[in-house]
Amino acid sequence: MARYHVPVVVFLIVTLLGLVSGGRDVTGDLILLPSEASRFFSGENDNDVKAEGTRWAVLIAGSNGYWNYRHQSDVCHAYQLLRKGGLKDENIIVFMYNDIAYNEENPRPGIIINSPDGDDVYNGVPKDYIGEDVTVNNFLSVILGNKTALTGGSGKVVDSGPNDHIFIYYSDHGGPGVLGMPTSPYLYAQDLIEVLKKKHASETYKSLVFYLEACESGSIFEGLLPEGLNIFATTAANAEESSWGTYCPGDYPSPPPEYETCLGDLYSVAWMEDSAKHNLQSETLHQQYELVKRRTANDNSAYGSHVMQYGDIGLSKNHLVLYLGTNPANDNFTFVDENLLRPATKSVNQRDADLIHFWDKFRKAPEGSSRKVKAQKEFLEAMSHRMHVDNSAKLIGRLLFGIDKGQEVLDIVRPAGQPIVDDWDCLKTLVRTFETHCGSISQYGMKHMRSFANICNAGIQKEQMAEATAQACVSIPAGPWSSLRKGFSA
């Protein structure tokens, strides 16, 4: 093995840095720029070596209600990671309804946690777009950097340039081809993809990474996100399955006993807890993807989902520091290709997390108390709404395609690589027609979006759909879940 004396090593480093710098005198830079030599020898790719461009981040929780605690908790935790990584508030845009921290159900007012023994992640989080300002229009306008299209909020947008890197993290309920919002309308996959294409055409970023937590989240990019946009996306689930909540009542580890809701989501907790434990200057997007995929699958098909990747997969060779920054406290950590952070022993289907909350609240409330009565009412209202939406969708299928063929048509799953629907305007129209006659689909009913897409793919027109829904739903049930404000309609 060759041995070099210290003066020889110094000479080699000086020579190499001189070549990289185009021949400038760098002898005085050895103390100022030690990372350049270490990165040269570690083989980090050129994007990581150059301190070019600005890191931008858009964080959005697309739900409201205390039973959806985990979505805002996820986003607040993501913000804390980015700040520790060195991103500035002016470059981080946060969307969340902001009805959790001081909710009467929150046992620790003003505090939000993302794990059973976690610190407060709410402190210092910017309130850029909250309440009724958490809208599809504002979210898409922020991505495009279009200040004139905003309605309310702080006015912050992604005012990026051609050398900048953008990170978008979305945590919410979803369904085939759609993502939830606490306001109407919801976000359709085609509309999001069109905005990402426009952003690319504007030449205002170098690369963009999108992390998406939602049920059927793979359907947002499946067959829709083309290569060549310099976008790398990962999703909590494929196009056909639910994503999962974690740190829920009854889990191990479970939340503190005073909490009656899930604290986080399995995919989200996986990437954030991984980021908190690694040196992001040496961990790549691909390495994190593999670790998160293993943890989210949970080695148990009953409690887990398949994390997916889309777009320009080659970007996954980039180091996470480009998007999340890096916590100096982790600089000496060595990446280990093993996930020591194990998930909870079981998880909760995202669509059942509200029922878990209402049931745990009912179970813990004193007998005869108003709290117990309220929890029982909330549980029964949620179950009634589910039965109404499920039965209405099934009946519409039978009315349109016959008793024998109805469910078969509604359940069709297209081959991988195809979007769920060919005509997105048709899908929007049919969903709007359903809600007009049958009431809100809401967060639970998003599971039926594939059925509506299949109705469109079968050539059903608005008039036929209107006739079928009018027959299926003689009236709109009363109750908070049936409000049209909670649906897809504009």
TrEMBL record:
<dbReference type="GO" id="GO:0051603">
    <property type="term" value="P:proteolysis involved in protein catabolic process"/>
</dbReference>
<dbReference type="InterPro" id="IPR043577">
    <property type="entry name" value="AE"/>
</dbReference>
<dbReference type="InterPro" id="IPR048501">
    <property type="entry name" value="Legum_prodom"/>
</dbReference>
<keyword id="KW-0645">Protease</keyword>
<feature type="signal peptide">
    <location>
        <begin position="1"/>
        <end position="22"/>
    </location>
</feature>
<dbReference type="InterPro" id="IPR001096">
    <property type="entry name" value="Peptidase_C13"/>
</dbReference>
<dbReference type="Pfam" id="PF20985">
    <property type="entry name" value="Legum_prodom"/>
</dbReference>
<protein>
    <submittedName>
        <fullName>Vacuolar-processing enzyme</fullName>
    </submittedName>
</protein>
<dbReference type="GO" id="GO:0004197">
    <property type="term" value="F:cysteine-type endopeptidase activity"/>
</dbReference>
<feature type="active site" description="Nucleophile">
    <location>
        <position position="215"/>
    </location>
</feature>
<keyword id="KW-0378">Hydrolase</keyword>
<comment type="similarity">
    <text>Belongs to the peptidase C13 family.</text>
</comment>
<keyword id="KW-0732">Signal</keyword>
<keyword id="KW-0325">Glycoprotein</keyword>
<feature type="active site">
    <location>
        <position position="173"/>
    </location>
</feature>
<dbReference type="GO" id="GO:0005773">
    <property type="term" value="C:vacuole"/>
</dbReference>
<feature type="domain" description="Legumain prodomain">
    <location>
        <begin position="378"/>
        <end position="473"/>
    </location>
</feature>
<dbReference type="InterPro" id="IPR046427">
    <property type="entry name" value="Legumain_prodom_sf"/>
</dbReference>
<dbReference type="GO" id="GO:0006624">
    <property type="term" value="P:vacuolar protein processing"/>
</dbReference>
<dbReference type="Pfam" id="PF01650">
    <property type="entry name" value="Peptidase_C13"/>
</dbReference>
<keyword id="KW-0788">Thiol protease</keyword>
<keyword id="KW-1015">Disulfide bond</keyword>
